Amino acid sequence: MTKFIAAIDQGTTSTRCIVFDHSGNVVAMDQQEHTQIYPKPGWVEHDPLEIWFRTGEVLQNALRKSALTSEDIAAIGVTNQRETTVVWDRTTGMPYYNAIVWQDTRTDTICNRLAADGGQDRFRGKVGLPLATYFSGPKIKWLLDNVAGLRAAAESGRAIFGNMDTWLIWNLTGGTRGGVHVTDVTNASRTMLMNLHTLDWDDEMLAVLEIPRKMLPEIRPSSAIYDYASGVLPSVPVSGDLGDQQAALFGQTCFSPGEAKNTYGTGCFMLLNTGQQPIYSQNGLLTTLGYKIGNHPAIYCLEGSIAIAGALVQWLRDNLKIIEKSGDIEPLARTVTDSGGIYIVPAFSGLYAPYWRSDARGVIVGLTRFINRGHIARAALEATAYQTREVLDAMEQDSGVKLSALKVDGGMVVNDLLMQFQADILNVPVIRPRVAETTALGAAYAAGLAVGYWKTVDDLRVNWGIDREWKPGIEEAQRSVQYARWKKAVARTLDWVE
Description:
Radius of gyration: 22 Å
Distance between the termini: 63 Å
């Protein structure tokens, strides 16, 4: 009987289930959005119960669309928005509070207080990360400090923590009826709580953030059988778990040191495989886990994280009503030949890599009476490309590796105008793969390897193929001028929040 792999891709704005065949082709897909909750400026939350409900819907719908049953599914992989933090009651399955999303900045006071003694990089040698609102550890501390009764529940072992992967796997495998409380090395490496060398929770970090160890999940490889699903897919192994950006790296088959990918989604994330040793950044990048397959050595990455990419297009759609749907951005941007001299720096929740400045806020600079909707649309697309250039520059300085091409994926790569401008401003070819759903594909690959559906990573390389390539098309003088003006615009965002 022909078997397939199901991947759950739990993202910032929606949850998807994609079913893949052995060649890595999409057999069926379903997607459901969930509510974005903004209680205060800088605060972003999700309802974990809504996300779990949507997960059940997309699983059922993908099976229905493909006319498959649980018996046709060889394994389930999970990939997820990273750092988004949920704490729930293991006996009732009820969250104590909404999930605090990775974009949320409420923990800036906690991070600043910790940075006052030793600086923003005081823990970088241990966890690979700067002190920033982005990561899960400070979010857990905020919940323990602010939700009545939660600390006592955590110390007793009743309240448990997970990023979205842990929450979904716990529910998938039975929830209150024996669900497994696990995460993988990639998600654990985004908490500020895992030691990069031991791949275990670090006692010093737990003490500094006052987090009880017993509320944390067991750290497992990214590809291993964790347990078996109940509900919609009874008895199917749940055997893959990767944070979304590492899943995209895996789906892009970046298995060799020096290979990199960039994902254009709500945010924008570039990862460079650095092999079996962590490389510590001198230029504002993160040292993180790339993946760990079964008993094989862990693979590390350098990562450049950009908070706002596709989210800027959503802002133009939802807040300013400049476009009706996200796909309208490219035709509108094509009504003009350039951005008219304006630059948009979307520091809505501060600047991430390579700056890590929570005091920054978004700006539009260079405005004149000449500017129209088309210029704003074009500048919004160009902002993503400029931010990517900043990350690539930092990555080349840290690694000493000069990239010859950039593999790209994510929702924005269907935008030909953006991809051409990206190649122009980077001065390297930009390559889109044949299967664009690389995040879900990476989770499927990890799950399939664990159950023998694919034997080795060499089987996965065979599936990868080029859909389209964009080559640079502007002169260096023009590139340099445009990039220098972008840097000038970034400087205008800093020191806005006192």
